[in-house]
Amino acid sequence: MRRKRIIAADLKSQAPGTLNKNMPRKAIFLDRDGVINHKLPEDHYVSSIEQFVFLDGVAEALRLLRDMGFVLVVITNQRGIARNLMTESDLEKVHNHMRSVLARNGVVLDAVYHCPHEKDELCNCRKPQPGMILQAQRDLGIDLNLSYLVGDSPSDMEAGSRAGVRSVRITDGQDDTAHAVFKDLLDFARDLANRQNTVQDVTV
Fold it and tell me: Cys bridge to 46: 51, 63, 127, 197, which one at CB 3.0-4.6 A?
């Protein structure tokens, strides 16, 4: 089967004038379902605004990460499109809603990337492949050595490892493949903020 190399990206939320590819920037790559919003059962897909329910503390977490200077990039597998269970238009409406609610809470996402392919299509964008991360690196001038991927699945951790970013697992359990494990996005953001403040206090 021919290997596909399509990565779908939505950069409309990029704030005008903020992109400077000559200055490497650190990023938080965010899986969507299970990190930003409640995850539906296996083989069910968020295809409408009504099904998209934010997890507690997400807006606060993203504000903290933004205040620390991180670029915020969503990277999400959406094979429901390939399975004809939703359309690109459905997904766009969901993501417009996500951006709109976050914007009302003081958060602007720099980019949203999604992979619409089925598992057997051999694309380079479906996690655990690192294609969406690497595309964002090129598009937004991101320094992967300074960046993190936050996800809730083994495929997220593998994608982060392949791309060369630090992988953070959102889970109530353990994950030896992750650089760190937290119960939710806000827990991670607060920990990162505390560690950054500690470094600043030491260097003053």
Answer: 51
- Is 31 in the active site? yes
Band (pLDDT 50/70/90 cuts) for residue 197 is confident
pLDDT at 42: 87
Please list, residue by residue across 89-109, b when 16 or more beta carbons sit within 10 angstroms of its beta carbon and e when fewer do: ebbebbbeebbeebeeeebeb
What would the pLDDT profile of 32-76 be if each residue is shown by its tens digit? Answer: 999 999 999 988 999 999 999 999 999 999 999 999 999 999 999
Q: What are phi and psi of 80, to 5 degrees?
A: -60, -25
- Catalytic pick among 31, 90, 139, 152: 31
Beta strands in the chain (DSSP E): 8-10, 27-30, 71-77, 111-115, 148-151, 166-170, 180-182
Q: Which of 33, 90, 139, 175 is catalytic?
A: 33
pTM: 0.88
Region of 84 please: left (phi>0), alpha (psi -120 to 50) or beta. Answer: left
Residue type, 204: V
Contact 184, 195 (CB under 8 A): no
Q: What's the pLDDT tens digit per position in 153-165? A: 999 999 999 999 9
Annotated catalytic residue 156: no
| Cα distance between residue 34 and residue 55, in whole Å | 8
* Residue of 79, 3, 72 lying closest to 46 (CA atoms): 79
